[in-house]
User: Fold this.
Amino acid sequence: MTWYALLVAAVAVERVAELVVARRNERWSRARRAIVAGDGHYPAMVALHVGLLVGCPLEVWLGGRPFVPALAWPMLAVLVGAQALRWWCIGTLGPRWNTRVIVVPGLPLVARGPYRLLRHPNYVAVVAEGLALPLVHTAWVTAAAFTVLNAAVLTVRVRCENQALTAAEAPVPA
Assistant:
């Protein structure tokens, strides 16, 4: 169980690193007259992700979940792949990446890196991580709850982001 708690803690540290990058990128975007959208769903998204990080070790501890190597190792590989995809997204978007919906008017959509394949590849990483992290140690209730709640949040989030991106692509008045 200790190693699993350390794994979840490492993911939490990764989240803090994301927030540091997001703050820096937010300053960059606001300096370029950014449009901020979706603040209404952001607290729910944060609470959901905190719930994932708390729920994983809590379910393992309280539920006495076993370590099942045949499930754990593939899920660990999915988790590592999700982190790699997430940081590929962050690197590809550069200062335009954020945990919030913040877009700079007039900039074209990014169509390189993972964005040449998918419109929202970061959310693929989120979905994969939400399943894999709990299942590394058979926390299936956390995996199921996160997946269902995340589907609801992502439905709102993707709609909001698509609207903001469409509005930002419009020509900027001089």
Notes: The beta strands are 35-37, 101-103.
